[in-house]
Every structure is written in structure tokens, then in C-alpha cells.
Amino acid sequence: MEDRIIAKLSIQLSANRATIDRHEQTIQEVETTLNDMETRLTTLEPTCSALTKENEALRRKTDDLENRSRRNNIRITGLPEKVEGSQPTSFIEVFLKETFGATAEAFPTPVFDRVHRIATPRKRQDDPPRPFIARMHHFQTKECILKLAREAGSLSFRGSEVHIYPDYSAEVSKKRAAYFTVKSQLRNAGFTYRMFFPAKLQVTDKHGQKLTFPSPREVSTFLASNLPGTSLTPTA
């Protein structure tokens, strides 16, 4: 009786030993795999870091090249759809003369390389009209138009409020748009300001001193310190 029990226990122990041996082998294989993966990760980390930096540098360079390609462009918003008919270039010439009136004589008749509305389709009839992009042949003409637009302040054309801006890449436009709220606060407080490329805001304080801010948060902090009761503007 005892011999049979001992025999069964021996068989069970042998089976358990075999199972343990298999588990030990599996654990060793897992450890070997993990060590190999750790070695590979250690090798890949600096490569990944270098590629990330290279990608960021290429992104900045691409954005810079895009903005350089747009440096002769102006963006005109607010002009009703189809008002240009089938001759957008001729229409924009008329628009500039009518908008600036006598001041339009401050620069020669613009030479356009091309004029078109942006290609984004309007989904609904009541969507805002698509902006015009006008590429000037001469950079100086573009600068003169922007100067006249700044000096005029508000512009209108045949009953429509219009705006003339420089034309920037989506990345730069996004950064500049982030200043929308603080610029409104500055105007309401009587401060004057000017945007500089790519997205810096120069504010003239009440003493005539010019201060340059690299982000909306710094402008918000400036407002909070100069105008009690002004809350900090949240930034993403």
C-alpha cells in the first residue's frame, strides 16, 4: 500500500519537476528576448531622437519656404461671392482703386501674377465668402497696399466690410490667430499694437514704450498687470 502511494507521489513529483523545468526554460527565453529588446531599444533611442530633431528641422524649413513663396501675396476677406464675375484680376484692380480712393495713387497700377479665391468649397449658402489671394508681381507694391490698409483702419467696398492681410502658411496663421482675444482686449484698453513675423506682437504702452511679446500668454500677463480686473487669457 505504502509502496503504491510512494510510487504515485514519485510520478507526480517527476511530472511537477518536468513542468518546472519547462517554466524555467520559458523564463530564460523571455529574459533573453527582453535583454535583446532592451539592447535594441537602447540603440534605437538616439536614432529616434535624431530623426525627431531632423523632422522638426525639415518642418520648420518647409514652413519657411512656404512663407517665402507667399511673400508677394495679399489675402482679401469679406468680398461677396461671384462679385468678381469671370475676371478676378480686373475686379481686384477696381477693388483697390475704389477702396483706397485717392490714396491708391500712392502706388502704380498693380501688376498681378495671379488672382483667385481659395479653393475651399462653401458647404452652405450662408457661409462666409471665400478669401481672395492676389499675388503681386512686385514685393514693394504688396507692402504699399498693406501699409495703406493699416493706415485706413477699417475698409469697406460697396457696403461690405473687407480686410486685407499678408498671406501666411497654415502654421503661421494658426500662431497669429491665437492672439485674437488679447488683441481685442488691447484695443478696448486703448493700446496700439502691431504684429511681426512670424507671430510676435509689439504693444505700445501708455508711456510710448514699445514692448514685444512672443506669445498671447505674455500679452495677457501684461494686460493683467496694467489693467486691474483683467483675467489671464487661457492659452492652449
Automatic annotation (TrEMBL):
InterPro entries given in the database record: L1_C (IPR042566), Transposase_22 (IPR004244)
Annotated coiled-coil segments of the chain: 20-68
Keyword Coiled coil: yes
Presence of keyword Coiled coil: yes
Gene3D superfamilies with a match to the protein in the record: 1.20.5.340, L1 transposable element, C-terminal domain
Keyword annotations from UniProtKB, A to Z: Coiled coil
Domain of life: Eukaryota
PANTHER family membership: L1 TRANSPOSABLE ELEMENT-RELATED (PTHR11505)
Record-given protein name: L1 transposable element RRM domain-containing protein
